[in-house]
Predict the structure.
Amino acid sequence: MTIAEVSRQFDITPDTLRYYERIGLIPPVPRTKSGIRDYDQTSCSWIEFINVCVRPVCRLRRSSNMWPCSSRVTAPSV
């Protein structure tokens, strides 16, 4: 699958997919002889995992800055 197809399937921008690969969040994506990313089932499985587990946490962190009480809440000590 091309990066555009994967982007549409998972509702992630192509830039985000490249970023995930660059920082090692997903393994290197196989490429065609001309160097174009060719997402296989393994790559798509990693992206699906990130969609389920990682993206919600990132969204929560971003939105926590908008919560009025977020600056007053401290994590419980363990």
Notes: The chain has a mean pLDDT of 81. Residues 41-53 form the longest helix (13 residues).
